[in-house]
Write a structure and sequence with these properties.
alpha+beta; 6-stranded antiparallel barrel; 5-stranded antiparallel beta sheet
């Protein structure tokens, strides 16, 4: 067994292969990288001297996989985060937390948190629980549990408070982009509510679609557009409703600029080059919080 500084020591169950503990190697005692190692454990942030047993292996973070030959070139390309790491990073950005602050709250190494967000990782249950607590969510949510279930299945607050949001608060929650729902009368005359990826530019809500699609039926009509967020772990949430006329953007320069600056492509894929703009004439919202907040 050989390691470099920054590699990870992973302890797995011999029977199931499930990771029981892992940590960053922060000290070597032999120049050839053989044991023992000083390891900063991700679950406690404590550094201990470790003589690895048969249930341990090295995850060579900076020098290829554990099975790579000595002297192999380090991997190239962009980070390849796993599902858990992506969810951690998204929730951290949503909470406007730095990696350092999140690591401090979760009592782990900032380097390990960076590794978790940027590489396919399988953190222990204890690590997930501390991360979830630091981010105000649940370990199940970070693992993707309930991804096929509608939000809002948690218990209601004992003493909830429902309050109206100001137009300025609504604009802040709309932010710059995301996924919202547009309510229209479809081409067959029946009502429809359709999710779309949207952008906000100069207070206008914009989305891309295809001619003849359900969202395209919004053009030339007054429509409703809704965005919300539900936190099942805390039984809190908010919703914003924008109402206004929708029009298709036809100016080539404007279309080109929107396409170039768009934060994301439409998730359904395919040719969706028709930009629709909603200029809100009414912007309202509500938030549910505990009564003492």
């Amino acid at each position: 067994m050989r390691a470099h500084l920054g590699d990870h020591l992973v302890i797995q169950s011999p029977a199931t292969g499930v990771t029981r503990r892992d940590g960053e190697i922060v000290g070597l005692h032999h120049g050839d990288g053989t044991p023992p190692y000083d390891v900063r454990w991700s679950d406690t942030d404590e550094v201990t001297l470790v003589f690895p047993g048969p249930d341990a292996h090295i995850r060579l973070v900076e020098h290829g996989d554990a099975g790579a030959a000595p002297g192999a070139a380090p991997p190239t390309g962009t980070p390849n985060p796993g599902d858990v790491g992506r969810r951690v990073a998204v929730e951290r950005h949503r909470q406007r937390l730095s990696r350092g602050e999140t690591a401090r709250r979760a009592r782990m190494s900032p380097d390990y948190l960076a590794y978790l967000e940027e590489q396919p990782a399988d953190p222990t249950v204890a690590t997930l629980i501390r991360l979830a607590d630091a981010l105000g969510t649940t370990a199940a949510a970070l693992r993707g549990g309930g991804i096929d279930l509608p939000p809002g299945q948690g218990h209601a607050l004992l003493h909830p408070q429902l309050r109206d949001l100001s137009p300025e608060e609504c604009r802040t929650l709309l932010s710059t982009h995301g996924v919202g729902r547009i309510a229209v009368s479809a081409t067959d005359g029946r009502p429809a509510v359709v999710p779309v990826n949207y952008e906000v530019v100069d207070d206008a809500i914009l989305f891309r679609t295809a001619p003849g699609s359900a969202p395209a039926a919004a053009v030339g009509k007054e429509v409703a557009f809704e965005v919300d967020h539900v936190d099942d772990a805390l039984s809190q949430g908010w919703s914003v409703l924008a109402v206004g006329p929708a029009r298709v953007i036809t100016e080539p320069d404007a279309v080109r600029g929107l396409t170039q600056r768009a934060h994301t492509s439409p998730w359904p894929g395919g040719a969706r080059e028709m930009w629709v703009s909603i200029r809100p004439t009414s912007l309202t919202g509500r938030r549910i919080t505990p009564a003492d907040q």
